[in-house]
Amino acid sequence: MSQHQKGEDDEDGDDDEDFDGDDDDDGDDEDFDGDGDGDDGDENDLWTKPSVLLQLTVYLGKRDFVDHVDLVEPVGELHLHPAHMFVTLTCAFRYGREDLDVLGLTFRKDLFVANIQAFPPPPEEKKSLTRLQERLIKKLGEHAYPFTFEIPLNLPCSVTLQPGPEDTGKACGVDFEVKAFCAENVEEKIHKRNSVRLVIRKVQYAPEKAGPQPTAETTRQFLMSDKPLHLEASLDKELCVSFSRCVSTVRQYADICLFNTAQYKCPVATEESDDMVAPSSTFCKVFTLTPFLANNREKRGLALDGKLKHEDTNLASSTLLREGANKEILGIIVSYKVKVKLVVSRGGDVSVELPFTLMHPKPLEESIYRDGEANTNASLTSLEAANIYDDDIIFEDFARQRLIGAKDDKDEDEEPVDSPKLDDR
């Protein structure tokens, strides 16, 4: 949802303000509840961001939109108009360094772009409003105009590839952006001063019903031995193996689906045991492996969850795929496996792999969808879950800080979509 506000155009740029308060003039978003943890704050807090000229303000009830595999939460709230106003939702995959973009060619592919004319409203059948939109219209007045985007089911989740220590510019990965702007038509050049851009995320949470316990086993016969070597491994209970030396590794697999599919694997947790096992004996041992991003900060290309500014991130969640999904437009598909390898002297290695799912549990407030269907009368954000008759909505403004020598966008081309970067803390 966006709001029209009066503002003056300062051509010399001296009074331009940085709305996220981080001195970088990128206008990205920050935590509203002031606790620095990047969450959405209290149930009545609202994500809001104005344009530089204060002509346009966008309101969002949340930043993370959940992919439930069979359906995705819609995006949208409200904004206020000056003339013609459009809202764009873009899902993009940046697959190359920004400093390599030359001659107008960018290492970036738009996977999905949708445009909506918010004002004047198109002569179509009016869509039903969410509870949050109804409350905002009542609060902001007649110059507030709602918008709603439906995210297709086949789009990837937000993923960032960890850059190397010497990499600069925007990180590679998949990101989503909502952009509201004032123009005569949707093809017109967009200027920073009369536009608002917000990075959102498409996320998945762990399914309520877990799959079967991962188990794997293998047997190898040796030429000079009358008995075979048998390896059996399982997750969540125990590792029962017969070996000379064991190495257990958690590996992350990232399938990059672009023009061709390429797979990158990266170990994120490793434990090695030097226990020696005598012939004709059995040895059982439990290994505890905990994959942490803190132990993998220097690994270039490691897949991470999409990052918003002023938030830390973590290892990317496993990707849950719908049956029959088209992998060509999924961007980055993340999966995890535990590899157990036995090192046998003069006999080669024996190994098994156990795939598993690494995801965040579903938050308690994510009880929006029941029985596999969307309840259109239920809340779409935590704010909507509040009493619809309670108009005490908290509009928390961004920290403002005057910039000296800020450039006017007349002499500056529009920057590409901001992707989450790992070195922004």
UniProtKB/TrEMBL annotation:
Ranges for region Disordered: 1-46, 405-425
Stretches with biased composition (Acidic residues): 8-45
InterPro entries registered for this protein in UniProt: Arrestin, Arrestin-like_C, Arrestin-like_N, Arrestin_C-like, Arrestin_CS, Arrestin_N, Ig_E-set
One Pfam family linked to the record: Arrestin_N
Gene Ontology molecular function, alphabetical: G protein-coupled receptor binding
Gene Ontology cellular component list: clathrin-coated pit; cytoplasmic vesicle; nucleus; plasma membrane; pseudopodium
Source taxon at top rank: Eukaryota
SUPFAM superfamilies in UniProt: E set domains
PROSITE patterns in UniProt: ARRESTINS
Residue stretches making up the Arrestin C-terminal-like domain: 225-363
Keywords for this protein: Cell membrane, Cell projection, Coated pit, Cytoplasm, Cytoplasmic vesicle, Membrane, Nucleus, Phosphoprotein, Protein transport, Signal transduction inhibitor, Transcription, Transcription regulation, Transport, Ubl conjugation
Record localization: Cell membrane; Cell projection, Pseudopodium; Cytoplasmic vesicle; Membrane, Clathrin-coated pit
Main location: membrane
Keyword Cytoplasm: yes
GO biological process: G protein-coupled receptor internalization; negative regulation of Notch signaling pathway; nervous system development; protein transport; signal transduction
Record-stated family: Belongs to the arrestin family.
Name of the protein this chain belongs to: Beta-arrestin-1
Organism whose genome encodes this protein: Acanthochromis polyacanthus
